[in-house]
């Protein structure tokens, strides 16, 4: 999308959040992280029957959208919901129906 086409900042953000949530694995990761404080990437590989490289791509997509954040605790990475962006995403999605 391009700002020159007249999209609002909120429309651009909502589209980015939507893209990040556009795969069931990523929705599963968000649901899991919402139920607990944080999760290590190694724990996710035990829960999800996908390759580590595929999981890394899904986590990167969520992180790039700002929905999750990662903290390196060598040798692992701990992932948590980015509460500010998650609340913004919820607000933007809710505003679609008003």
Describe the structure concisely for a colleague:
By secondary structure, this protein is an alpha+beta fold. The protein is built from 5 helices and 3 strands; from the N terminus they run ααβααββα.
Summarize this structure as a short list of keywords or feature phrases.
Arc Repressor Mutant, subunit A, alpha+beta, single chain, 98 residues, 3 strands
3D architecture notes:
The chain is an alpha+beta fold and 98 residues long. The chain has one domain: Orthogonal Bundle (Arc Repressor Mutant, subunit A). The chain contains 5 helices and 3 strands; from the N terminus they run ααβααββα. It has helices at residues 9-20, 24-35, 41-47, 52-64, 83-95, and strands at residues 38-40, 68-73, 76-81. The chain has a 3-stranded antiparallel sheet. A hairpin with a 2-residue loop joins strand 2 (68-73) and strand 3. It is elongated and about 45 Å long.
Estimate the global geometry from the Cα principal axes: elongated
CATH architecture: Orthogonal Bundle
User: How many domains is the backbone divided into?
Assistant: 1
- SSE class: alpha+beta
In CATH, the homologous superfamily goes by the name Winged helix-like DNA-binding domain superfamily/Winged helix DNA-binding domain
How many helical elements?
5
Average predicted confidence as pLDDT: 92
- List the helices and strands in order: HHEHHEEH
How many beta-strand segments?
3
CATH domain topology? Arc Repressor Mutant, subunit A
How many whole angstroms does the radius of gyration measure?
14 Å
Task: State the strand order across the main sheet.
Answer: 1-3-2
Could you list the spans in which at least 5 consecutive residues all have pLDDT below 50?
A: none
Query: CATH class, anyone?
Result: Mainly Alpha
Percent range for helical residues? 55-70%
